[in-house]
Design brief:
Layout: H1 2-13, E1 20-23, E2 27-33, H2 51-70, E3 80-86, H3 91-106, H4 108-113, H5 124-128, E4 134-138, H6 143-153, E5 160-162, E6 179-181, H7 186-199, E7 204-210, H8 213-229, E8 232-239, H9 245-254, E9 261-265, H10 268-280, E10 287-290, H11 298-301, H12 305-308, E11 312-313, H13 322-329
Parallel strand pairs: 2-3, 2-4, 4-5, 5-6, 7-8, 7-9, 9-10, 10-11
Antiparallel strand pairs: 1-3
Helix pairs in contact: 1-3, 3-6, 7-8, 9-10
The structure holds 2-acetamido-2-deoxy-beta-D-glucopyranose (2 copies).
Residues 122, 124 line the site of one 2-acetamido-2-deoxy-beta-D-glucopyranose.
Length: 352
């Protein structure tokens, strides 16, 4: 709670200069996406724009809103609006952006006086209109950020629906009263991991996890399921979300000897740091069995593909949307003005 207060105070004193995408409507949903990657260190600027889990999620949301608003049978007579903000894959940024959303909802007059920076996205016309009621907030994606955002939203009884925060602790109704999600809790993923290990007779393994909500809560679930399923964990190592090479190598050295298979309940950046160290020190190589923090993310393996060979990763099943590809390919930085992040980088030649 102290952290919430500290950020709340900062946000009230310093107007945010963050960009946002706004769809006007009679009511509004807030939405948080990690359009930019995490800052390299605390207090630094956000990382580079992420296409796959950043820009594409923003576009998928805008397109879903178009479809809902175009269908007269879904919300007859009501235009659904949204305000999409960038959480930079950092809990503190997610919290600050949520405060902006909530502040506009609870004190619209004050918010209008205080947001000169919205001009970056040329939102001046929105500034004159009163903020429409905030129905709820979608996201953010990372469990650690979702926990922070929920601590604030539940004070105002504002519902929050995450699209990818799987951490098991978020199922606790007593602590997270207005949190909902459209993905299963990590309890199920832990069961699947154990079943996968057993199917390969890998019943003696090492375990690695990222030392924050997602990794800790996932590893706790994995430990329970492993004990129940007869899988022994030889040694466990926790790594920071974006560990340095020395930290990773020291952990891998401690795992050297014993089983060659390691379960990795890691955030994408942690998994990438592991692959990177194994590329430099091949004798420390482990066969990684990873959770959905890695899943099919290209930014995790980019340039390190040979060293990821043999790894197995889990991903939540979601059908491929071919008509999203068609929509995405028609977008151009010159005409797609409603997405302020789209023009930041040149159009990539790949989609997924
Ligand atoms: C911003 O909006 C104003 C008023 O609608 C318009 O005249 C101006 O051209 C816009 N600027 C940009 C950069 O789109
Ligand atoms: C696992 O062990 C059992 C019993 O020893 C054996 O029948 C099975 O083929 C093994 N499976 C794999 C994938 O090695």
């Amino acid at each position: 709670m102290l952290e919430v207060l500290a950020v709340l105070v900062t946000a009230l004193l310093v107007p945010a200069d963050a960009e946002r995408a706004v769809v006007r409507g009679a009511v509004r949903l807030g939405a948080l996406f990690a359009v930019h990657g995490a800052p390299a260190e605390a207090g630094a600027r956000c990382g580079p724009v992420r296409e796959h889990y950043g820009i594409q999620r923003v576009e998928a949301t805008l397109r879903a809103l178009d479809a809902i608003n175009a269908d007269g049978s879904l919300l007859p007579g009501l235009q659904l609006g949204a305000e999409l903000r960038d959480s930079c894959w950092a809990p503190s940024t997610a919290l600050r952006e949520t405060i902006e959303l909530v502040r506009d909802a609870i004190a619209p007059a004050r918010a209008r006086q205080h947001s000169p920076a919205a001009s970056a996205a040329n939102c001046t016309s929105q500034e004159d209109a009163p903020a429409s009621p905030l129905l709820g907030v979608l996201g953010p994606g990372a469990s650690s950020a979702a926990v922070q955002v929920q601590n604030l939203l539940q004070l105002f009884s504002i519902p929050q629906v995450s699209y990818s925060a799987t951490s098991r602790e978020l199922s606790d109704r007593a602590r997270f009263g207005t949190f909902f999600r459209v993905v299963p809790s990590d309890r199920h993923q832990a069961r699947l991991l154990v079943a996968l290990l057993r199917a390969h007779n890998w019943t003696y393994v090492h375990a690695l996890h990222t030392d924050e909500s997602y990794g800790q809560s996932g590893m706790a679930a994995f430990r329970e399921e492993a004990a129940r399923g007869g899988v022994c964990v030889a040694r466990e190592e926790a790594l920071r979300a974006a560990p340095g090479p020395r930290e990773v190598e020291a952990a891998l050295r401690r795992l050297n000897g014993g089983p060659r298979v390691a379960v990795c309940w890691c955030e994408g950046r942690t998994a990438r740091a592991l692959l990177d160290s194994m590329a430099r020190e091949p004798y420390l190589r482990l066969n990684l069995i990873a959770s959905d923090g890695w899943a099919d993310r290209r930014d995790v393996v980019d340039g390190l593909e040979p060293h990821a060979r043999g790894a197995l990763t889990l991903r939540i099943r979601s059908p491929y949307l071919h008509d999203f590809d068609d929509y995405y390919r028609t977008l151009s930085p010159h005409t797609n003005t409603r997405n302020p992040w789209f023009r930041v980088r040149s159009l990539p030649n790949s989609t997924s």
